[in-house]
Amino acid sequence: CRPSWNCFLISLDSRLSAKADVYSFGVVLLELLTGRRALDKSKPGIEQNLVDWAKPHLRDKRRLYRVMDTKLGGQYPKKGAHAVANLALQCICNDAKMRPQISEVLEELEQLQDSKSNIVSPQVDIRRTSNTVPKSPMRGQPSPRRSLGAMAPPSPAFRTAQVH
């Protein structure tokens, strides 16, 4: 197993589960917010592990800007970023029983998408912003991974997706 947050999960949980998938998705949300990889050996100390580095800042909306992707230049809806940070924090909870169901995560993201206060930040050029992202076609459908068995690897697109 090459170093990744999936390996960390397996060592914590010793098995793959829907709650482990929720944790992994929480890490993906953090990668999107911060523009960083889950593990980065080029960073010093605690900054190598995205969860350990970001988690203390996620609880306080006044500190959230410290972990936001600097490439965004502050040009993002603050309320939306805070809501996604809170959702990520729930997903990466150490106690798997306290993590939300993936259906709850999807519902929260869809509510954020639909929220007029989070569609466009006043600083964003509205001509370059699209708010027409369709609802998930998988909502209410059984997970395709469940039909493949508990040890099914993530899809190739999931493994190769990177945030720049």
Automatic annotation (TrEMBL):
InterPro entries per record: Kinase-like_dom_sf, Plant_Ser_Thr_Prot_Kinase, Prot_kinase_dom, Ser-Thr/Tyr_kinase_cat_dom
Any matching Pfam family: PK_Tyr_Ser-Thr
Gene Ontology MF term list: ATP binding; protein kinase activity
Residues annotated as domain Protein kinase: 1-112
Region (Disordered): 120-164
PANTHER family per UniProt: OS01G0588500 PROTEIN-RELATED (PTHR45621)
This protein's name: Protein kinase domain-containing protein
Native source species: Aegilops tauschii subsp. strangulata
